[in-house]
Design a protein that fits this description.
mainly beta
């Protein structure tokens, strides 16, 4: 089973940018679909983008569409989340997760329980 470690979180101002990384070990990340999820205090964990294994097809939740960009580099066994002009409401712990089961990207991004491998999370705080 793949092990995932997120990094890159921190404080970012509205209008700024931040890049999160998800490093994988123990398995070949290219065999997994990857999702970025976030959880704010008192709220459900929500999937923001999910990406296919090799085509680069990505599903984005409406809340981040146009601001966040997800990518992956299978040669480096890593995935990334570029956050541009995040809103204060984007403050949360961000997790990357992996799944091997082929599903429509929106389906897997909406239902986090389908993901079996999770990182420990990285805190992102959007504030001026």
């Amino acid at each position: 089973q793949v092990q995932l470690v997120e990094s890159g979180g921190g404080l970012v101002q509205p209008g700024g940018s931040l890049r999160l990384s998800c490093a994988a070990s123990g398995s070949i990340l290219g065999t997994y679909y990857i999702g970025w999820f976030r959880q704010a205090p008192g709220k459900e964990r929500e999937g923001v983008p999910c990406i296919s294994r090799s085509t680069g097809n990505t599903y984005y939740a409406d809340s981040v569409k146009g601001r966040f960009t997800m990518s992956r580099d299978n040669a480096k066994n890593a995935a990334y989340l570029q956050m541009n002009s995040p809103k204060p409401g984007a403050s949360a712990v961000y997790y990357c997760a992996a799944i091997t089961t082929a599903l429509p990207l929106k389906t897997m991004c909406v239902d986090r329980m389908r993901f079996g491998s999770w990182g420990q999370g990285t805190q992102v705080t959007v504030s001026s």
